[in-house]
Amino acid sequence: MTTPAISVRGIEKSYKDLHVLRGVDFEVASGSIFALLGSNGAGKTTMVRILSTLLKSDAGTATVQGVDVAADPLKVRESISLTGQFAAVDEILTGHENLVLVAKLRHLKNPGAVADDLLAKFRLTDAGSRKVGTYSGGMRRRLDIAMSLVGHPEVIYLDEPTTGLDPEARIEVWDVVRSLADSGTTVLLTTQYLDEAEQLADRIAILHEGRIIANGTLADLKKLLPAASVEYVEKQPTLEEIFLTLVGTTGKENAA
């Protein structure tokens, strides 16, 4: 059996009388995309903060790459990266300078080359010398994810990465997420968008009122509902069909 990249068992978290997580269990396979789906307030961000060692749980255990997040948080941080709901980029700096800054903070050799490689990977080379304040929403998010990949983390958390983006920018981010998994990175994605989970995830867990109420592949989840029935509905003509029918009839009459 392959050790899961992420393992969560019985995680609980409360803020005084507010029970946010009520015994959460799930596993994420290495190199897969796992979507934690839930509405606002379901506990998604709290779960990510616990897995990121930013918050301690009240009960339960969680491991990342086999390391307990509570017992050895420093070791866990060596293998993870987190991209929050809002792009954590410096708008005064250029895209290249943002990446160089992160590479230097991680004490990597040749930070300029690291920045160049990531700009190319995320199709931002032409914009690399521009200040990030001139970037579109999709470009900022792509840069934000690129910054999270400096140092090649094995696991990346994407906490509602497409919040506030337009449809075109969302598709750009989806392409980035797919490429991460294709390269072997494990992705834990939290989202409230059903289509996002459907498009990206290998497995989906639905978090509701602090509990996982369903967990499986999209095909597994579809089996939870009754089989679809076929119904015949009377189709009303569209304006286009009416127009073409009338014009076509008139044209034939005139030709006669």
Briefly say what this structure is.
The protein is α/β, with parallel strands linked by helices and 256 residues long. The protein has helices at residues 44-51, 73-77, 95-105, 111-121, 137-148, 167-182, 194-200, 218-222, 239-255; strands at residues 6-15, 18-28, 33-37, 59-64, 67-68, 80-83, 155-159, 186-191, 203-208, 211-216.
If you had to describe this structure to a student in words, what would you say it looks like?
By secondary structure, the protein is an alpha/beta fold. The protein has two domains: 1-79 and 154-227, P-loop containing nucleotide triphosphate hydrolases (Rossmann fold); 92-152, no CATH class. Helix content is 36%, strand content 24%. The protein contains nine helices and ten strands. The strands form two sheets. Strands 6-7-8-3-9-10 form a six-stranded mixed sheet, sandwiched between helices. A four-stranded antiparallel sheet has the order 2-1-4-5. Strand 9 (203-208) and strand 10 (211-216) form a beta hairpin. Helix 3 crosses helix 4 and helix 5 runs parallel beside helix 6. The chain is globular, with a radius of gyration of 23 Å.
